[in-house]
């Protein structure tokens, strides 16, 4: 039976968690793999913690959701608490150890945020989610401002000073910190924060080539890249930076 790589990402609204998941799924499909991406905005929807479930495999994928993740990436203190049930003994746990405070993301700059995402049909051809193992909060309908319309300026606030390592489950396979917020803010641009995280996911999972992710980004943001080639360079630098940090830690 083909191995299924199970990835769970969680973060505050505006951190681009769903965008990361969509790019992963699109890149996996381009590689000829099966991929399933399920967004979960929980009962809070905008302004709350959102979780993205991604599964990638060379074979069939059964249940739309899963209990334990192979790769778990919570990007805020609240996300750490919301995803504890997805941490298991075989989980590689990646978290942002920057001192995250309040931030603002402007969609007219660079990067990929949730307003750029085309929500998938998460259960097409799949078993009934009610009959499958699930975790976290129930799925809710996507807010309309996340579905259509022109990109907006998105503000997000991460409660508290950042993720406390003491809150990370001690029984996971491995814990890898990455100062993604600090790197984005000090070396690149806050807008490419989630590209750093995407690079980290690619390095940790080893199921997709980095070049395929770049091709998926070209497809998604090609018009923006043509208008301003510097945006391509910054996004790719962020992607490579996250990839290199995790590769150096594995």
Describe this structure in words.
- It holds the Pfam family POR.
- Keywords: Oxidoreductase, Pyruvate.
- InterPro entries: 2-oxoglutarate_synth_KorC (IPR052554), Pyrv/ketoisovalerate_OxRed_cat (IPR019752), Pyrv_flavodox_OxRed_cen (IPR002869).
- Residues 13-244 form the Pyruvate/ketoisovalerate oxidoreductase catalytic domain.
- The structure is a single chain.
- The protein has 250 residues and is an alpha/beta fold.
- It has one domain (4-249): Pyruvate-ferredoxin Oxidoreductase, domain 3 (3-Layer(aba) Sandwich).
- Helix content is 32%, strand content 20%.
- It is built from six helices and eight strands.
- Strands 2-3-1-4-5-8 form a six-stranded mixed beta sheet. The chain has a two-stranded antiparallel ribbon with strand order 6-7.
- Helix 2 (77-82) links the parallel strand 4 (71-74) and strand 5.
- Helix 3 crosses helix 4.
């Amino acid at each position: 039976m083909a191995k299924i790589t199970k990835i769970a990402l969680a973060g505050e609204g505006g951190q681009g968690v769903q965008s990361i998941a969509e790019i992963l799924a699109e890149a996996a499909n381009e590689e000829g793999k099966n991929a399933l991406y399920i967004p979960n905005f929980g009962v809070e929807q905008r302004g709350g913690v959102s979780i993205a479930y991604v599964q990638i495999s060379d074979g069939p994928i059964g249940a739309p959701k899963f209990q334990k993740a192979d790769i778990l990436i919570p990007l805020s203190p609240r996300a750490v608490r919301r995803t504890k049930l997805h941490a298991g003994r075989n989980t590689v746990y990646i978290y942002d150890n920057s001192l995250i405070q309040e931030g603002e993301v402007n969609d007219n700059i660079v990067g990929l945020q949730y307003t750029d995402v085309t929500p998938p049909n998460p259960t097409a051809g799949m078993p009934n989610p009610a009959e499958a193992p699930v975790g976290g909060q129930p799925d809710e309908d996507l807010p309309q401002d996340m579905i259509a319309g022109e990109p907006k300026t998105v503000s997000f606030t991460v409660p508290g000073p950042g993720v406390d390592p003491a809150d990370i489950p001690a029984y996971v396979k491995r814990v890898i910190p990455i100062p993604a917020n600090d790197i984005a803010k000090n070396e690149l641009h806050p807008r490419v924060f989630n590209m750093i995280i995407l690079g980290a996911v690619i390095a940790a999972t080893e199921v997709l080539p980095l070049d395929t992710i770049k091709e998926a980004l070209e497809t998604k943001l090609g018009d923006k890249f043509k208008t301003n080639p510097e945006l391509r360079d910054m996004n790719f630098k962020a992607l490579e930076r996250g990839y290199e940090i995790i590769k150096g830690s594995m």
